[in-house]
């Protein structure tokens, strides 16, 4: 039987393929065994089909996906130089059904490959999936977008952001748009601030070649956290189809700017020194293999933005992420304003309500003031919490599902990718000019003591 789609993984021997893509595909095919997919791996290695099948099987076994292997037992591999039009042409010609080219390769190689695709006859419906970072600044992202536009229609370009496939991130939409209670308080009238924090215990994990050139700002904020912010702040879309949802995302990103246009007072950066995170010891970032200390790369970044529209005017939105940190709370925290008037007679403090979407484990909680059990007029804090479960698919599974369905709802649109660069550029510029100090924190702490995190 002919497959509906051939998923062609370019960079089949890479870490992304074995660590994330194949396990996610295995999970997806186990959950949805009816899918008709052919898998083909391509790369520079002289692998045989048998070797590739072993790689796939091993990756599938890291999940509950052994059964799914049957679905791709016919999977094939070919050696290909993906910057060569002839090799790309062959990959596309050999595909069954609709080809989906997944560029699991460094961005520079993906860009070269997209240029080479200009000399290739691309079958109708071909999907191109590109990993982050998409370009290195607004101008390069724009050039890449122009190149991609010559190849396939925009809704067949999947700029991958796996955070958009996380169930809690999708839950931001459910919570916001399916609850009148929240709908009516979701603006600067009632919200004092928003914080999106993603501390990681992981360090470089052998990725200095990429990370030392990117840093925490580009690695996490320019990409993932701005997309999360867009889900928190977008206007209600008419539907969740790719057109409406991505229109709403782009509109709010266009309105987003560094707070007060002042990156010096609205951004902070730091990098870790030696320390322990749990039972792992980290050397100082600058002593990690492959790191160029002179580059001054940050491993913890923070920036505060504002959305200049009627809904959000004046609300500070702080985005923060870093590596080798203590097990901090990964969360979107929406802090509400205090009540307009607290009637006299209550005992104790009335703290403003706080709604927290935890980004793993996936929970949602609401901190409220109630009357205490002992003294009926004494205010006490309670937290109403909901465990949202893990979601049927992991983030990459959701992303792959979109690619195989040809539904770009969870893919970053070209204009949004450019906006994300435009938003962070003033911070990058200020940091390059050393207008913001590069602080230090010991690995395993919450960040620099002076940050009061
Ligand atoms: O894309 C990336 O994301 C991960 C964090 O995402 P997670 O889902 O694995 O928690 C981050 O560690 C990595 O540096 C970044 O490139």
TrEMBL record:
Q: Where is the Glucose-6-phosphate dehydrogenase C-terminal domain?
A: 175-450
Key word Oxidoreductase present: yes
Which keywords accompany this UniProt record? Answer: Carbohydrate metabolism, Glucose metabolism, NADP, Oxidoreductase
A GO CC annotation given for this chain = cytosol
> Which is one GO molecular function term here?
NADP binding
Claim: Methyltransferase is one of the keywords in the record: no
Name a biological process GO annotation.
glucose metabolic process
Per the database record, which ranges form the Glucose-6-phosphate dehydrogenase NAD-binding domain? Answer: 8-171
Pathway in which the depicted protein is active: Carbohydrate degradation; pentose phosphate pathway; D-ribulose 5-phosphate from D-glucose 6-phosphate (oxidative stage): step 1/3
Coiled coil ranges (UniProt) are: none
User: Which PANTHER family did the record assign?
Assistant: GLUCOSE-6-PHOSPHATE 1-DEHYDROGENASE, GLUCOSE-6-PHOSPHATE 1-DEHYDROGENASE G6PD
Q: What is this protein called?
A: Glucose-6-phosphate 1-dehydrogenase
Species assigned in the record: Microbacterium enclense
Lineage, broadest ranks: Bacteria, Bacillati, Actinomycetota, Actinomycetes, Micrococcales
């Amino acid at each position: 039987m002919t497959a509906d789609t051939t998923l062609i993984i370019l960079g089949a021997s890479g870490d992304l393929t074995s660590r994330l893509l194949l396990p996610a595909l295995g999970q997806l095919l186990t959950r949805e065994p009816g899918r008709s997919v052919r898998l083909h791996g391509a790369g520079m290695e002289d692998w045989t089909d048998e070797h590739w099948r072993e790689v796939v099987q091993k990756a599938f076994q890291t999940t509950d996906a052994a059964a799914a292997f049957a679905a791709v037992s016919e999977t094939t591999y070919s050696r290909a130089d993906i910057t060569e039009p002839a090799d790309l042409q062959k990959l596309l010609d050999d595909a069954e059904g609709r080809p989906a080219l997944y560029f699991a390769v460094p961005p520079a190689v993906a860009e070269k490959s997209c240029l080479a695709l200009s000399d290739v006859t691309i079958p109708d419906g071909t999907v191109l999936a590109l990993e982050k970072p998409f370009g290195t600044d607004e101008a390069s992202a724009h050039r890449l977008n122009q190149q991609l536009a010559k190849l396939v229609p925009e809704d067949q370009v999947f700029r991958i952001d796996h955070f958009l496939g996380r169930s809690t991130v999708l839950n931001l939409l459910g919570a916001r748009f399916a609850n009148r209670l929240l709908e009516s308080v979701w603006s600067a009238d009632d919200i004092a601030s928003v914080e999106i924090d993603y501390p990681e215990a992981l360090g470089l994990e052998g990725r200095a070649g990429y990370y030392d050139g990117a840093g925490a700002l580009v690695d996490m904020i320019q990409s993932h956290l701005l997309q999360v912010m867009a889900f928190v702040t977008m206007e209600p879309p008419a539907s969740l189809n790719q057109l409406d949802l991505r229109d709403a995302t782009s509109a709010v990103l266009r309105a987003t700017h560094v707070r007060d246009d002042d990156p010096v007072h609205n951004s902070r950066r730091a990098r870790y020194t030696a320390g322990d995170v749990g039972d792992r010891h980290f050397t100082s970032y600058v002593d990690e293999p492959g790191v160029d200390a002179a580059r001054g790369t940050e491993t913890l970044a923070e920036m505060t933005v504002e959305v200049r529209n009627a809904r959000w005017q004046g609300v500070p939105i702080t985005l923060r992420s870093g590596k080798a940190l203590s097990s901090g709370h990964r969360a979107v925290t929406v802090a509400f304003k205090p009540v307009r008037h607290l009637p006299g007679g209550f005992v104790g403090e009335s703290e403003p309500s706080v709604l927290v979407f935890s980004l793993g484990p996936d929970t949602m909680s609401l901190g409220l003031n109630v009357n205490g059990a002992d003294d009926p007029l004494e205010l006490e804090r309670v937290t109403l919490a909901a465990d949202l479960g893990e979601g049927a698919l992991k983030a990459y599974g959701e992303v792959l599902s979109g690619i195989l369905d040809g539904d770009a709802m969870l893919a970053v649109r070209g204009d949004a990718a450019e906006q994300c660069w435009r938003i962070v550029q003033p911070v990058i510029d200020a940091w390059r000019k050393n207008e913001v100090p590069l602080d230090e924190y010991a690995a395993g702490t919450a960040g620099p003591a002076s940050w009061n995190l």
